[in-house]
Amino acid sequence: MNQTERITYYETLLDQVKEELGRMQTKKDASEQFGKRLQELDEYYGSVIWFQDYNTELAGELPADLKRGVLTEDGIYDVLMDYQELPEG
Asked: Around Cβ 38, how many Cβ atoms within 10 Å?
């Protein structure tokens, strides 16, 4: 998978997690798939690969039309924190 495909993949995961998180009232409401997606985003965020992707973004070397919220410093972090703040249920 090349860099653009990877960013698109994680961007899709982020969108899916945000959508499901918006419907959850408690952590107990999380599907198994949600947990896997959240874990994958958590592992990507702050990894060497994420920093490479982030630095490519800062250098202006990504396609202008590439959706890249996953590379913002708050994109994944906010989702992780929103999940942590949910009651256990």
From this structure: 21
